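Let's do one together. I've listed all components of the complex below, 430 residues spread over four lines.
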Amino acid sequence: MVRVSSASAAEPSRPARVSGIDKIERRRVALAESALKTLGELGYARTSLREIANNSEFTHGVVHYYFRDKVDLISYCVRYYKTKCAQRYDEVVETAGSAEELAAGFLSKMAQTLVEETPMHRLWYDLRAQSMFEEQLRPDVAAIDQLLEEMIWRILTRYADLSGTEPAVDAPTAYALVDGLFEQAVVNYAADPAGARDLLTGRVEQVLPKLVYSA
Amino acid sequence: MVRVSSASAAEPSRPARVSGIDKIERRRVALAESALKTLGELGYARTSLREIANNSEFTHGVVHYYFRDKVDLISYCVRYYKTKCAQRYDEVVETAGSAEELAAGFLSKMAQTLVEETPMHRLWYDLRAQSMFEEQLRPDVAAIDQLLEEMIWRILTRYADLSGTEPAVDAPTAYALVDGLFEQAVVNYAADPAGARDLLTGRVEQVLPKLVYSA
DNA sequence: GACTTTGCTTGACACTTGTCAAGAAATCTC
DNA sequence: GAGATTTCTTGACAAGTGTCAAGCAAAGTC
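Okay, and this is what the predicted structure of the assembly comes out as:
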């Protein structure tokens, strides 16, 4: 489990009672969730602290009570987000009994998250781009990239296993390829929400077998 | 040839002489080039018109003399950029006499542009991400994506030709895959400028043969 | 050389931004 | 329930933003 709380926040002197620290943490999470919703809608650049506060039940001063500054908040959000996104396919990987079943489960889950969590994916690609310019974001972004790479790698190795063969590319390559397809789908989704889904599944389906040696 | 000038700019009433319109166009290009330099350095979000003017030989008022507003400028920049980037590999495609030669030329050119035009690539991925939030950018971004897809497709079909076979994926898929690898390299380049180059070439080398049917 | 058009500079405007601080409100402690 | 502590609200600040307009400089026109 990732300890999101050990961040670099102001850490106001903690109250004596045990529930206090948790309460603070819960407020942080609530703020982060609200912030993520706004961020996903508007993107990193256009999201101000006031906008985040407006779209939440809090006022803009509260943000500064729980986070040192904007980067601290965004950073926290990214780390919070991270803990939620990289285990999406784990169940599919564990329960699939054949390569076809795994592929089908992966594809359907992928299409589902594309549709249901579009804003989050948009935000992710935005943040990764921002990290190229804003050094402070790089560690967090790199950590998520790592997590996602491992996620894809788990899927691919299991897929190869079930096919009685081995991956034909290494982990970073596999991740870059699948991510390229997914990002394309996310970008296209803005223009054509209806078609993007099927195009994605079709393309991943096309590519997946090429990532392992033929059995 | 793309007519960049037919944009939506203010279009001040043109002087009678023929050189006048060209002079305006040349100023626009000069401003765009300066803006692109700043944009590549700072990214879309952090680049203000004043910053663009400061890093150029002009003052911030001139920008508004030649461009209606900020989006008009950025839009123009993107379209100007587009005309320069999608023909990078054309010479390699035309002169290569064998599949290996084509692959080698492609890889070396790709590595070269990664290193020499890093800011431009960063900016491109930034802009594409922004286009998911800013509708006005979408047409321009989509046009560039299209151009790049065709570029990759020219390379792949020629590569298949020279190998005496055919592409095993369609154009959008091929583009998404290669682009995934390239974007990963651009992001990594920020953290590790030395290693990113070789990692990219290695990975593309690994993948390229899998995009065509084995001869 | 006067006059008009074009090109550019400067300074201002309305607005948004992140940040902070003073104090009200709520909560806890005894 | 009084007092202390935590939590939150409100209003303000300086800095930065896009935009524009008034006026100066330069170039072209007759």
